[in-house]
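Hello Y.,

Per our agreement to keep a running log of every chain we model this quarter, I'm adding this entry. I've kept the format consistent with earlier entries: sequence first, then predicted structure.
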Amino acid sequence: MKGAPERIWKLCDYIDFEGRPVPKTADWEKKFLSANDSFGRNGERVLGFSKLHLPKDKYPKNFQFNVEDKGLLKGLCFVGVLSLSDPPRDTVPPALMKCKAAGVKVIMVTGDQPVTAASIAKQCNIITEETVN
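Predicted structure for the entry above:
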């Protein structure tokens, strides 16, 4: 499964460490939060990944999954995160400054996590100080 790293993390009971699932601990939680925060503060888009091995006898090749079945969200193993650098185009910050100078209220709508959104907003001159928690 892939998605917002903090949501994927919360669904997982294990972490893939050196190819084996190990239980999540407070120490792993700190490492995850630190890495996720670091990527976001650099303005990187972050995706979290998890896996769940399903027995072939219970889930044959053509099994019809029901997306409403929450039973498959138990025992997930966190695999890691992927960060993508997608900086604003060079023309965006000056264009936004012109808009602000003209009295246009600039609002950014994004699906990124708050720390990433704040970093991008600062790069684009939408905000001048970190106002996002």
